[in-house]
Amino acid sequence: METKGKRILIADDEPDILEIVSYNLGKEGYEVYTAKDGNEAIERAKQLNPDLIILDVMMPKKTGVEVCSILRSQSLFQETMIIFLTALSDEASHIKGLETGADDYVSKPISPKVLVSRVNALFRRINKDDGKTLKIGNISIDPVKFIVEIDGNEVILAKKEFELLYLLASKPGRVFLRNEILSQVWGMDVIVGDRTIDVHIRKIRQKLGVDCITTVKGVGYKFEI
Amino acid sequence: METKGKRILIADDEPDILEIVSYNLGKEGYEVYTAKDGNEAIERAKQLNPDLIILDVMMPKKTGVEVCSILRSQSLFQETMIIFLTALSDEASHIKGLETGADDYVSKPISPKVLVSRVNALFRRINKDDGKTLKIGNISIDPVKFIVEIDGNEVILAKKEFELLYLLASKPGRVFLRNEILSQVWGMDVIVGDRTIDVHIRKIRQKLGVDCITTVKGVGYKFEI
DNA sequence: TTTCCATCTTAACATTAAGTTTACACAAAT
DNA sequence: ATTTGTGTAAACTTAATGTTAAGATGGAAA
């Protein structure tokens, strides 16, 4: 995998955590840098322009949330991914963290494997969503122009419909659980009713007029031709 | 949901700790097994193939770190999660532990609550990426695409049928007791009638059209070609 | 602002498939 | 011959999804 060259900045006031996390991410081939408080995090972020910043919420000088919103206000860090480390209890800051534009959060105590796999997942997601036009059979899906074409005929989908179709089509054949769909298309914190996904699936099927989404009962949906 | 049926092996030379920890994890619905030194830990791990192994670092016969690296060198334990119990001071073994591939640490003295919540967290997150395609002879079972193929021909199974087949096929040749099947596929708390498994087995046999599930009368079923 | 429009969500109900039980047949072991 | 365990088919129950239409929302145009 091309994790190489990806820079990650980790800010935490506990040396143990810095050590464990940087060791594990380093092992995966990332360039890892550390900071031990909020101010240092901002400073180093400006120097390094990392691809990903992992912020402890509770830090001296500035909290992770503060750091996040300061960085996000600058255009340079508009696209930078941010993960929060939070204490399990700290429910309120989860919400705040997400509001200030974090991409993910991981609850302490941290499992290195879990963190690494989340980081990998984030990069994986980002790498793909670079706006590649998907082409599966006679269907093409262009996330930049926001257009779906079947045999050259343009089909117009609404935002959610498009995102859902794009998700499924990004890994043809793979079954996506309803949970996965919810967290990817709607977001982890959003709670919507049981039938919402179905209805969107139905509309997609209807608009496309092609039977390319298969239901796997009790499991989820998959895209295949 | 399915913390049930998850097997945990705990190795520690202090009976008190074994008792407290297994009591607390047992209460959560895990199947808990114990070992009182390094050698016994390895032996039981091979018997049980647990989902998680909790190792005391300081043990007679073999240390937790030694046990870990021995197990990790075998493919069977490549994916098994491992947690170390360490004395707080023991900084050096942290590093060593990480090198041998542990997933988490808990420092002594242990708070049962903390340990339980870490274990739960591990299982919660890990549950996501446990999808490996099994290939036995001309049969392949892909839990990501939710597809079974025989000589390249796709066979569609329902959820329970698939889970049951996947379980049996995960250890070809091994006999699964009806109890085991029930707790792994259905969950420990679910109570279903006597013939339920048979009927599912029958449907699988029927759909596959290949005789790959063998009845071991009075014992259970096994997958073999 | 108000109105309009498309999108998104929800609720209620219909439909289908999955899963379970029942009842009995059969086979092997005692 | 009786007991025990499993196979089979059909009836039955439950769970999951499909469908439709009716609000809710929010942005754009009048």
Gap between N and C termini of chain A: 28 Å
What is the overall number of helices of chain A? 8
Determine the strand fraction of chain A and express it as a percent band: 15-25%
Helix/strand-derived class of chain A?
alpha/beta
Give an overview of the whole structure.
The structure is a homodimer of 225-residue chains. Chain A is built from eight helices and twelve strands. Chain A is elongated. The first copy, chain A, has a five-stranded parallel beta sheet with strand order 2-1-3-4-5, with helices on both faces. In chain A, strands 6-7-8-9 form a four-stranded antiparallel beta sheet, covered by helices on one side. In chain A, strand 4 (81-87), helix 4 (91-99) and strand 5 form a beta-alpha-beta unit. By secondary structure, chain A is of the alpha/beta class. Helix content of chain A is 41%, strand content 23%. Chain A has two domains: 7-128, Response regulator (Rossmann fold); 134-223, Winged helix-like DNA-binding domain superfamily/Winged helix DNA-binding domain (Arc Repressor Mutant, subunit A). Chain A starts with 6 loop residues before the first strand and ends with a strand. The interface between A and B is medium-sized, with 22 and 21 residues. Chain A binds a DNA duplex (30 and 30 nucleotides) through helix 6 and helix 8.
